[in-house]
Amino acid sequence: MMKLTFLGTGTSCGVPTIGCRCYTCSSTDAKDKRLRCSALVETETTRVLIDCGPDFRQQIMDQPFRKIDGILITHAHYDHMGGMDDIRPYCQFGEINVYADTLACKGMLQMLPYCFAENRYPGVPAIQLHEIHPHEALRIGDVDIVPFQVMHHDLPILGFRIRQTDGGEHGTLVYITDMKTMADAELDYAKDADVLVVNALRQKPHHSHQTVDEAVGFARLVGARQTWLIHSSHDIGRHAEVNAQLPADIQLAYDGQEVEI
């Protein structure tokens, strides 16, 4: 069995947004406090982090301190990889394997040049960077992962189809963030998931992110059994009120939520 933990479910500005006193940002409900998007996928023997944004240190403090076997990066935007320096404490377990596409690898080399210098100074994160490509499967411990491509406006980024090795046909997780569109040729990689995680920024249209209605339509298109919506801004509204209007099988996720797959 795999376990998914939502470390953060918010968009790039987080919720509450700095300086904002709107209806959502002023909520006292803990489920309306959204750090930047990140998640942990765990089995009994393997731990995989999806994205490592600028809130990583805060997010991981409440989790058991044990080895991270791999980090999957969806794309090269700061809110998804800006916390990479904070993985330093986990390097006591050995080098951290980071998996990213060509653009994200280039972005990491630019963001953390001191980690890849010929003569690294003591204490910098020990990162082993692996360039991955859509449809080329990889295995981390007992977790099988197939990257696929979605479009963040005109930027190609990665989604992931994940399941435990030898877990049978069930127990499939599909994780997508920052998607606006997905080519028909990629749809099979997202179909028939037991758990679909997909972005829903707000109610009103946006040029590079799905709306709530678009996310619901996508979930129906790919036939997900249960869908959790992430990467949500303060404009989406309050957690409890939005979920009351959504189908039971499509709901807003919240920070700290755990889901068994």
Task: Summarize this structure briefly.
The chain has five helices and 14 strands. It is an alpha/beta fold.
What key phrases describe this protein's structure?
about 260 residues; alpha/beta; seven-stranded mixed β-sheet; 5 helices; globular
What does this 3D model show about the protein?
With 261 residues, the protein is α/β, with parallel strands linked by helices. The chain has five helices and 14 strands. It has helices at residues 56-60, 78-81, 102-111, 212-222, 239-245, and strands at 3-8, 38-42, 47-50, 70-72, 96-100, 127-131, 138-140, 143-152, 155-164, 172-175, 195-199, 226-230, 250-252, 258-260. The model has no long low-confidence stretch (mean pLDDT 96).
List the helices and strands and how they pair.
Elements: E1 3-8, E2 38-42, E3 47-50, H1 56-60, E4 70-72, H2 78-81, E5 96-100, H3 102-111, E6 127-131, E7 138-140, E8 143-152, E9 155-164, E10 172-175, E11 195-199, H4 212-222, E12 226-230, H5 239-245, E13 250-252, E14 258-260
Parallel strand pairs: 3-4, 4-5, 5-6, 10-11, 11-12, 12-13
Antiparallel strand pairs: 1-2, 1-14, 2-3, 7-8, 8-9, 9-10
